[in-house]
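Dear H.,

Thanks for agreeing to be a second pair of eyes. The structure we're designing against is below in token form, covering all 238 positions.
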């Protein structure tokens, strides 16, 4: 581990606010995971990557007594953004996404009643506040150009960057195997007890920990970029 990597690690976890409560919900036929991230004090919530079953996400939030005020997006692939317009229409939530993914979000809103909805861009290491809780955006490109993980105190939502036992593919437009390697190294530097909430239910369990992934995930076990590239570019998934 270089000094630089150690510095990166502590800057990512430094001064994290209290973590939102997290509810993981599997939706659609592609085994997508959405998360409801909530502040139990103010009952404000964010929905991450709303897609496929927005009515169910709304029902779930209502049952929990939550008011959805934000939509957080990990990346602009269709299966993660196709429910944004419906979600914003029902809740008036503001949309939060990395600037490099914004075009795909605008595409998802096109032709809807909320086509002109305000989109707030989030930069690397910026904090996203949900009521009295919060998360830090980590720009983790490689699967897509501006793919973003959201780190809370104790867990990280990883989109299609890291799966339980796997990682995102890099052969779609904007994919870059070297960038994904660096993004995974950044996640690997998080505390081992950090719980991982991936963007799809592709693993043996719906969530994991960084510690378990470091031991069991073949992509995190690679000793070098060359080894990682050979493995990533041989296997195609997600
Ligand atoms: Fe994706």
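And this is the sequence the design step returned. I haven't edited it by hand at all.
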């Amino acid at each position: 581990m270089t000094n630089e990597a150690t510095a990166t690690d502590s800057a990512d976890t430094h001064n994290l606010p209290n973590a939102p409560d997290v509810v993981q919900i599997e939706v659609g036929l592609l085994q997508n995971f959405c998360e409801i991230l909530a502040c139990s004090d103010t009952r404000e919530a964010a929905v991450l990557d709303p897609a496929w079953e927005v009515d169910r996400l709304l029902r779930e939030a209502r049952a929990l007594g939550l008011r959805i005020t934000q939509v957080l997006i990990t990346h602009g692939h269709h299966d993660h953004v196709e429910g944004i317009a419906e979600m914003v229409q029902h809740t008036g939530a503001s949309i939060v996404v990395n600037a490099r993914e914004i075009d795909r979000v605008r595409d998802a809103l096109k032709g809807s009643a909320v086509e002109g909805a305000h989109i707030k861009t989030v930069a690397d290491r910026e904090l996203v506040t949900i009521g009295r809780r919060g998360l830090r955006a980590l720009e983790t490109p490689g699967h897509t150009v501006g793919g973003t993980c959201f780190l809370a105190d104790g867990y990280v939502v990883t989109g299609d960057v890291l799966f339980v036992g796997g990682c995102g593919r890099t052969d779609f437009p904007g994919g870059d195997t070297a960038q994904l390697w660096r993004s995974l190294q950044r996640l690997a530097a998080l505390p081992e007890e950090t719980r991982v909430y991936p963007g799809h239910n592709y693993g043996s369990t719906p969530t994991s920990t960084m510690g378990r992934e470091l031991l069991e995930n073949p992509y995190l076990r690679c000793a070098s970029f060359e080894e990682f590239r050979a493995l990533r570019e041989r296997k195609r998934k997600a």
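Two observations from my side: DSSP finds eight helices and 14 strands in the chain. Residues 177-188 form the longest helix (12 residues).

Warmly,
E.
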